[in-house]
Amino acid sequence: MSKRNRARRMSRQESAEASPGAIVAANDNRGAVHAFTFGDPEPVLSRATMLDMLECYHNQRWYEPPISLHGLARAFRASPHHSSAIILKRNMLAASLAPTQWLSRAAFKSMVQDYLVMGNAYAQEVRNRLGGLLRLDHALAKYTRRGVEPGRFWWVPGGGEAETEFTPRTVHQLQAPDVNQEIYGLPEYLSALQSALLNENATLFRRRYYENGSHAGYIMYATGEFADGDIDSMRDALKRSKGPGNFRNLFVHSPGGKEGGIKILPIAEVGAKDEFLGIKNTTRDDVLAAHRVPPQLLGIVPANAGGFGDVTKATDAFFELEIEPLQSVFLELNEALGVEAVRFRERVKAAA
Hints:
Layout: H1 12-18, E1 24-25, E2 36-37, H2 47-50, H3 69-75, H4 80-96, H5 105-118, E3 120-127, E4 133-139, E5 144-146, E6 153-155, E7 164-165, E8 171-175, H6 193-211, E9 218-222, H7 230-240, E10 262-266, H8 269-291, H9 311-330, H10 332-337
Antiparallel strand pairs: 1-2, 3-4, 3-8, 5-6, 6-7, 9-10
């Protein structure tokens, strides 16, 4: 091979000039097929994975959470299956509680919901004048921050309001463990959060699809013989069918036309319908797998004739595998307080 045809390495300037288009010719043969690669360079580490490398930074007073708690609160209602699974666990845990003089069912219910949504729950001690424990109040996890010094917590409401510090060693934190840091807990459903958001996006897109009234639903392909002015009349009728009151019927009469002279070619309806159902079903399965909730407990209609099986057996298995481990998390408060503030009733299996 001669030196003229030998490939050489591009300089930095040439690489910078070629990077915006990222177009690389596969060969130099004239008259032959050319293949190109195009698109912007993709980073090996995306922004999502970079979050795993960050620690909880602090401002000398409290630590900031590794993930936006405001975003988790908004995502709570993104998907009906996501919120319904959390509400089911919350209601079953609250129903199994035996209220004590220190913990009410309402406060416990709020703490459970914070733990399932945010991965953190906070119980604040309220003591009497003699220093004895009077009751446990619920502190919203969305606005509670863990202090830099052990045993100290801060109330950070945002919105221009001043932050305040809780009385030291009166707030107890329950957290779902995280593999990257030990300051804050993270919810277990994070792996399915994108599926829940995609489920919401599919529903919103479908609503806009029917509300805008001006989407291209089909192509009207006319090849027959028409009298003068017929094409203009059909064009005007199609224009009037758009917007409010669309999907009108259209009558076309062509005496000299042939069979197949007018064809309707759908370009969006069939494909969008199949894609919509596939997205909804797939994302639903992802969310249910992350929450480990049997579908019959959420009122999902089975697609097959056999159904999902006995609902009582599914309830017993779900209570044993999910609710009882969650009960053990809140029983940790008893060890921190020195009193039996959290107590659960013994459950009788539904199948029995």
